[in-house]
Design goal:
Helices cover 30% and strands 38% of the residues. The protein has 149 residues and is of the alpha+beta class. It has one domain: 3-Layer(aba) Sandwich (Aminopeptidase), CATH 3.40.630.30. Strand 4, helix 4 and strand 5 form a beta-alpha-beta unit. It binds coenzyme A.
Amino acid sequence: MTQSNLFHPYNPELELACMALFDANCPQFFARNERDDYLGFLKSQPVGYHVCLLNDEVVGAFGLLKHNQEYAINWIMLSPKTQGSGVGKQVMEHVIVTAVDQGIDRISIAASHLSAPFFAKFGAVAVNEIEHGWGQDMHRIDMVLNIKL
Ligand SMILES: CC(C)(COP(=O)(O)OP(=O)(O)OC[C@H]1O[C@@H](n2cnc3c(N)ncnc32)[C@H](O)[C@@H]1OP(=O)(O)O)[C@@H](O)C(=O)NCCC(=O)NCCS
Protein backbone atom coordinates (compact mmCIF):
# COMPACT_ATOMS: atom_id res chain seq x y z
CA MET A 1 0.00 0.00 0.00
CA THR A 2 1.30 3.46 -0.87
CA GLN A 3 1.73 6.09 1.82
CA SER A 4 -0.92 8.35 0.29
CA ASN A 5 -3.47 5.56 0.78
CA LEU A 6 -2.28 4.84 4.27
CA PHE A 7 -2.54 8.37 5.71
CA HIS A 8 -5.76 10.36 5.93
CA PRO A 9 -6.28 13.83 7.49
CA TYR A 10 -8.08 13.81 10.84
CA ASN A 11 -11.70 14.95 11.03
CA PRO A 12 -14.19 14.85 13.96
CA GLU A 13 -15.80 11.64 12.66
CA LEU A 14 -12.53 9.91 13.53
CA GLU A 15 -12.60 10.96 17.19
CA LEU A 16 -14.03 7.68 18.53
CA ALA A 17 -11.55 5.59 16.54
CA CYS A 18 -8.66 7.71 17.81
CA MET A 19 -9.85 7.44 21.41
CA ALA A 20 -10.05 3.67 20.94
CA LEU A 21 -6.39 3.72 19.86
CA PHE A 22 -5.52 5.66 23.00
CA ASP A 23 -7.48 3.30 25.25
CA ALA A 24 -5.79 0.28 23.67
CA ASN A 25 -2.39 1.80 24.51
CA CYS A 26 -3.29 2.89 28.06
CA PRO A 27 -1.84 2.36 30.60
CA GLN A 28 1.04 0.53 28.87
CA PHE A 29 2.25 3.44 26.75
CA PHE A 30 0.18 6.43 27.89
CA ALA A 31 -0.62 7.38 31.48
CA ARG A 32 -4.32 7.41 32.39
CA ASN A 33 -4.12 11.12 33.20
CA GLU A 34 -3.21 11.85 29.55
CA ARG A 35 -6.65 10.75 28.27
CA ASP A 36 -8.33 14.11 28.78
CA ASP A 37 -5.37 15.87 27.17
CA TYR A 38 -5.73 13.69 24.08
CA LEU A 39 -9.48 14.23 23.88
CA GLY A 40 -8.95 17.98 24.18
CA PHE A 41 -6.31 17.80 21.47
CA LEU A 42 -8.71 15.99 19.11
CA LYS A 43 -11.52 18.44 19.87
CA SER A 44 -9.23 21.30 18.83
CA GLN A 45 -9.46 19.83 15.28
CA PRO A 46 -5.68 19.81 14.91
CA VAL A 47 -4.39 20.73 11.47
CA GLY A 48 -1.65 18.28 10.51
CA TYR A 49 -3.06 15.34 12.48
CA HIS A 50 -3.54 12.16 10.45
CA VAL A 51 -4.87 8.67 10.90
CA CYS A 52 -3.35 5.53 9.39
CA LEU A 53 -5.88 3.43 7.49
CA LEU A 54 -5.44 -0.23 6.60
CA ASN A 55 -8.38 -1.82 4.78
CA ASP A 56 -10.56 1.13 5.86
CA GLU A 57 -9.71 0.49 9.52
CA VAL A 58 -8.06 3.17 11.66
CA VAL A 59 -4.91 1.46 12.93
CA GLY A 60 -2.93 4.50 13.97
CA ALA A 61 -2.67 8.25 14.28
CA PHE A 62 0.07 10.88 14.39
CA GLY A 63 0.65 14.55 13.74
CA LEU A 64 3.33 16.90 12.54
CA LEU A 65 2.02 20.15 13.98
CA LYS A 66 3.26 23.71 14.22
CA HIS A 67 3.08 25.42 17.60
CA ASN A 68 4.74 28.74 18.44
CA GLN A 69 6.92 28.62 15.30
CA GLU A 70 8.16 25.12 16.25
CA TYR A 71 7.19 21.82 14.67
CA ALA A 72 6.52 18.72 16.71
CA ILE A 73 5.42 15.13 16.28
CA ASN A 74 2.25 14.83 18.37
CA TRP A 75 0.24 11.91 19.74
CA ILE A 76 1.67 9.15 17.58
CA MET A 77 0.11 5.78 18.37
CA LEU A 78 -0.72 2.55 16.59
CA SER A 79 -3.17 -0.16 17.55
CA PRO A 80 -1.39 -2.94 19.47
CA LYS A 81 -2.04 -5.45 16.68
CA THR A 82 -0.36 -3.09 14.17
CA GLN A 83 2.69 -2.30 16.29
CA GLY A 84 5.87 -3.93 15.06
CA SER A 85 4.64 -4.31 11.47
CA GLY A 86 6.51 -1.36 9.95
CA VAL A 87 3.73 1.25 9.96
CA GLY A 88 5.62 3.36 12.52
CA LYS A 89 8.60 3.41 10.19
CA GLN A 90 6.35 4.52 7.32
CA VAL A 91 4.99 7.30 9.54
CA MET A 92 8.49 8.53 10.35
CA GLU A 93 9.57 8.40 6.70
CA HIS A 94 6.43 10.36 5.78
CA VAL A 95 7.13 12.95 8.50
CA ILE A 96 10.72 13.38 7.34
CA VAL A 97 9.74 13.73 3.66
CA THR A 98 7.05 16.26 4.65
CA ALA A 99 9.60 18.22 6.69
CA VAL A 100 12.05 18.32 3.79
CA ASP A 101 9.28 19.42 1.39
CA GLN A 102 8.21 22.21 3.73
CA GLY A 103 11.72 23.32 4.68
CA ILE A 104 11.31 22.28 8.32
CA ASP A 105 14.78 21.71 9.76
CA ARG A 106 13.93 20.72 13.33
CA ILE A 107 11.16 18.62 14.86
CA SER A 108 10.52 18.28 18.59
CA ILE A 109 9.23 15.03 20.05
CA ALA A 110 7.90 14.69 23.59
CA ALA A 111 8.51 10.95 23.94
CA SER A 112 8.36 8.48 26.79
CA HIS A 113 11.16 6.22 28.00
CA LEU A 114 9.36 3.42 26.10
CA SER A 115 9.10 5.17 22.73
CA ALA A 116 12.38 7.16 22.75
CA PRO A 117 14.43 4.23 21.37
CA PHE A 118 12.03 4.09 18.39
CA PHE A 119 12.51 7.78 17.57
CA ALA A 120 16.27 7.44 18.08
CA LYS A 121 16.31 4.96 15.19
CA PHE A 122 15.37 7.86 12.91
CA GLY A 123 18.03 10.20 14.29
CA ALA A 124 16.18 11.90 17.15
CA VAL A 125 18.36 12.76 20.14
CA ALA A 126 17.28 13.25 23.75
CA VAL A 127 17.67 16.78 25.08
CA ASN A 128 15.86 16.48 28.42
CA GLU A 129 14.47 13.79 30.70
CA ILE A 130 11.84 14.15 33.42
CA GLU A 131 11.29 11.21 35.74
CA HIS A 132 7.54 10.42 36.01
CA GLY A 133 7.02 13.35 33.60
CA TRP A 134 3.87 11.83 32.07
CA GLY A 135 2.54 10.26 35.27
CA GLN A 136 3.64 7.59 37.72
CA ASP A 137 6.40 5.43 36.16
CA MET A 138 5.94 7.05 32.73
CA HIS A 139 9.08 9.05 32.18
CA ARG A 140 9.23 11.94 29.72
CA ILE A 141 12.08 12.17 27.22
CA ASP A 142 12.18 15.35 25.15
CA MET A 143 13.89 14.77 21.83
CA VAL A 144 14.91 16.74 18.76
CA LEU A 145 15.05 15.40 15.23
CA ASN A 146 17.21 17.57 12.99
CA ILE A 147 16.27 17.33 9.33
CA LYS A 148 18.93 17.59 6.62
CA LEU A 149 17.47 20.01 4.07
C1 LIG B 1 6.16 3.61 18.86
C2 LIG B 1 5.36 3.11 17.66
C3 LIG B 1 4.68 4.31 16.96
C4 LIG B 1 6.34 2.45 16.66
O1 LIG B 1 5.63 1.97 15.54
P1 LIG B 1 5.82 0.46 15.02
O2 LIG B 1 4.99 0.27 13.82
O3 LIG B 1 5.59 -0.45 16.16
O4 LIG B 1 7.35 0.45 14.61
P2 LIG B 1 7.97 -0.34 13.34
O5 LIG B 1 7.40 -1.72 13.29
O6 LIG B 1 7.81 0.49 12.12
O7 LIG B 1 9.48 -0.41 13.78
C5 LIG B 1 10.52 0.32 13.15
C6 LIG B 1 11.80 0.01 13.89
O8 LIG B 1 11.73 0.56 15.21
C7 LIG B 1 11.87 -0.48 16.19
N1 LIG B 1 10.96 -0.14 17.29
C8 LIG B 1 9.63 0.00 17.25
N2 LIG B 1 9.15 0.37 18.45
C9 LIG B 1 10.22 0.45 19.27
C10 LIG B 1 10.38 0.78 20.63
N3 LIG B 1 9.33 1.14 21.41
N4 LIG B 1 11.64 0.77 21.15
C11 LIG B 1 12.70 0.41 20.38
N5 LIG B 1 12.60 0.11 19.07
C12 LIG B 1 11.38 0.12 18.52
C13 LIG B 1 11.50 -1.76 15.47
O9 LIG B 1 12.10 -2.87 16.09
C14 LIG B 1 12.04 -1.49 14.09
O10 LIG B 1 13.44 -1.69 14.08
P3 LIG B 1 14.21 -2.29 12.79
O11 LIG B 1 13.95 -1.30 11.66
O12 LIG B 1 15.63 -2.33 13.22
O13 LIG B 1 13.60 -3.62 12.53
C15 LIG B 1 4.29 2.06 18.06
O14 LIG B 1 4.92 0.90 18.56
C16 LIG B 1 3.28 2.57 19.08
O15 LIG B 1 2.23 3.04 18.71
N6 LIG B 1 3.58 2.41 20.38
C17 LIG B 1 2.62 2.72 21.45
C18 LIG B 1 2.29 4.20 21.55
C19 LIG B 1 3.50 5.04 21.84
O16 LIG B 1 4.34 4.72 22.67
N7 LIG B 1 3.59 6.18 21.13
C20 LIG B 1 4.66 7.14 21.31
C21 LIG B 1 4.21 8.23 22.24
S1 LIG B 1 5.47 9.47 22.39
